[in-house]
Design goal:
Elements (H helix, E strand, L loop, with lengths): L2 H11 L2 H11 L3 H6 L7 H8 L2 H10 L14 H7 L3 H10 L14 H8 L2 H10 L14 H7 L3 H13 L5 H9 L9 H7 L3 H7 L16 H4 L3 H35 L1 H4 L2 H23 L34 H25 L7 H22 L4 H28 L1
Helix pairs in contact: 1-2, 1-4, 4-5, 4-6, 5-7, 6-7, 6-8, 7-9, 8-9, 8-10, 9-11, 10-11, 11-12, 13-14, 16-19, 16-21, 18-19, 19-20, 19-21
Length: 416
């Protein structure tokens, strides 16, 4: 029996001892010899096929290059593991080398593509966690993992991929989401085209919750609406067409501002999930405290009967002009309102910037915070004893400058 036969036999039964017997006593260069052959069934392929986790891990540790080796069928060991449903082995291989998620096999299929094709939800989740950039890989047909999921009617897999894209909080997440969701295959079809052709109404509704370009045309000059045969899908697309124009403008305004702030500060790249939650809590507390301070400024407010709402009730004012105004002097109120407003604006803007979700739900949350900022501004203007023009100028120019300084300083501190 040759050394190769002994290795194959050991891999088939998952016995590690004969592996070292061959290496130490028979042929120390046996693994290097196998590695020189371009397309070959390595001992790692054999062990994976047989489902032997420990042997597969051992042989990969000894010869890491085997993990990227293609067999005569154009499959690497991890492709083989996914094909045969050996989930544990596939995860073990990726745990040792996360870059295996992007290794290409026959027809340019990566392990992520294959997991999408098979509807392996666990693998998709773990692969994206281990190697986020794998979502960018395409096949020889220029198909993304989402194209493959739709083409093989794996709706659950599509949901996992879609939700990962729209909730991704890394730097450049919005651009990545737009790019992948509107990516065209070799025939110019986006995933929305594929969903419409397959009459998958649920998939169409899901995709329309994000950055889909409805008027995108394939190589035949057809939009999604042109190729849709289902009346339900056509109705969904028509309704989405009018709604998406408004949503796109709103989202562009909010997300562009948020992305710019995060890019300047470096927060999205450097802040962990745990830290982000902590910052959200602190920002919320600051926003609450500053809003309350604006409603009840130091010294209180003039009342209709000429008394204030605090212990200084003996202070009288004969005119109704100052009813509801702060009793602080113009100078003191200007200092107070400027500092308090800046703190409120920075904290609320930080909340918007730190929100991780990138879907339709994010829009009303962000809008509500922006409306709160406007409400705050109106409240302070109502109680201000100073000129309206002066206050507006202070808030329009001073607060944004302070927010910019805070964002850049935050990035400098983190990087330092």
């Amino acid at each position: 029996m040759t050394s190769e036969d002994m290795l194959k036999a050991a891999a088939e039964v998952g016995d590690i001892s004969p592996l070292y017997t061959v290496i130490l006593q028979d042929n120390p260069h046996i693994l290097e010899k196998i590695d020189l052959i371009p397309f070959i069934e390595t001992p790692l392929h054999v062990a994976v096929s047989a489902g032997h986790v420990h042997f597969a891990t051992e042989i990969m540790t000894l010869k890491p290059s085997f993990a990227e080796k293609l067999n005569p069928q154009g499959l690497t060991p991890i492709h083989l593991a996914i094909e045969l449903g050996h989930i544990t082995i596939a995860l073990c291989l990726v745990h040792i080398n996360k870059d295996l998620v992007r290794v290409k096999g026959r027809e340019g299929l990566t392990p992520l593509h294959l997991a999408s094709q098979k509807g392996e939800i666990t693998l998709l989740t773990e692969f994206l966690k281990a190697c986020p950039d794998s979502i960018k890989d395409v096949t020889v047909r220029n198909e993304t993992a989402l194209h493959i999921a739709l083409r093989h009617e794996q709706y659950a897999a599509l949901q996992v991929l879609f939700r990962w894209l729209v909730t991704n909080s890394q730097i450049g997440a919005i651009h990545l989401e737009r790019t992948i969701l509107n990516w065209k295959d070799e025939q110019g079809n986006t995933i929305l085209h594929v969903a419409a052709v397959n009459n998958n109404t649920e998939a169409v509704k899901l995709l329309l919750k994000s950055w889909m370009i409805l008027d995108s045309k394939n190589l035949e000059g057809q939009t999604t609406l042109d190729i849709a045969s289902s009346e339900d899908i056509k109705m969904v697309l028509v309704k989405a067409g009018s709604r998406i124009k408004v949503i796109t403008k709103i989202r562009w305004l909010i997300t562009s501002t948020s992305e710019w702030i995060m890019c300047k500060s470096g927060m999205r790249e450097l802040v962990s999930e745990e830290a982000r939650n902590a910052y959200l809590i602190v920002s919320t507390l600051v926003a609450t405290a500053t809003y309350q301070a604006a409603l009840s400024p130091p010294g209180g407010l003039y009342q209709t009967d000429g008394d204030t709402n605090n212990t200084l009730s003996h202070v009288a004012f004969n005119s109704s002009v100052n009813d509801g105004k702060s009793i602080m002097s113009n100078k003191h109120f200007m200092v107070f309102s400027t500092m308090n407003t800046s703190a409120f604006m920075v904290s609320t803007t930080t909340i918007i910037a730190l929100l991780p979700a990138r879907n339709v739900v994010w829009i009303p949350v962000s809008l509500s915070i922006m409306l709160l900022q406007l409400t705050y501004t109106n409240d302070v203007l109502q109680i201000s004893p100073t000129s309206l023009t002066t206050e507006v100028i202070n808030w329009i120019f001073l607060a944004p400058v302070l927010m910019l300084i805070a964002g850049i300083s935050s990035g400098s501190i983190h990087r330092g």
